[in-house]
Amino acid sequence: MKILTPILALYFLVIFPTTHLAFPGNRFIYEFGNIFYFAFALTLALAFRQVSVEQLGFHKNNIGKSLVTGILLGALPFLSVFLLDGLIVKAGLSQSELLAGADLRIPEEMGLYNSPAEIIFSTFIVPFIDQVFVIGLVVNNLLPKENSGRVIISGGLLYVLLHFDLGMGSLFLGMISAGLLKATGSILTPILVHTGFAIAELAILFNYPRLISALVFLV
Predict the structure, then answer these.
(1) Which of 22, 32, 174, 179 is deepest in the core (most CB within 10 A)?
(2) pTM of structure
(3) Residues 128, 194: Cα–Cα separation, whole Å
(4) What is the pLDDT of residues 44-79, one digit of tens each?
(5) Which residues of 172-195 are buried (b: 16+ CB within 10 A; e: fewer)?
(6) Which of 171, 140, 131 is nearest to 153 (CA)?
(7) Please, what is the Cα angle at 175 between 42 and 61, to 5 degrees?
(8) Average pLDDT over residues 38-48
(9) Residue 59's pLDDT is what?
(10) Could you tell me the residue ranges of all domains in the chain?
């Protein structure tokens, strides 16, 4: 797909450097500037018919199955957070040197989302745009579809590269998303799973802060 070359070149050579060098003091632009570009690029590509909704992973077939699969898998991250925190408390690890006093952390003092608009944006809008652009546009149309293993691994690496995030969590999410798109043929499932991870992240930050230390290797 020829449209990918100028879109990715503009992102890597102009948008990402400009966002991080020109707006280091604006937390919202610094963190979500790439999402605005992803949305802009998708809008132009669709408006000029350089890509179709089907090429982005939106298919009419098996919509119900894709939604159910996405909802069930998307619920797992939040349930895992709840169960892991309960396990830590029951095992007495909440008072260990590593985790003691974690419940006293105040999200606002750590520079985390504190307005309803930011929470809604980061939980629902970001996963949708992120998955449609990275997985639906780039991965779905750039990687060979016949090799599942290559798609999953390369999808995870592309996800890390496009976000400039070397954390295991980003790699893991990218691989899961690419694998789900390959397995279901629908972008809806990765979107819902990403949303589930975003909700779980907010739950950790605001309700289970001790898990920040326990899961720091995934950041």
Answers:
(1) 174
(2) 0.88
(3) 8
(4) 999 999 999 999 999 888 899 999 999 999 999 989
(5) ebbbbbbbbbbebbbbbbbbbbbb
(6) 171
(7) 60
(8) 96
(9) 87
(10) 60-218
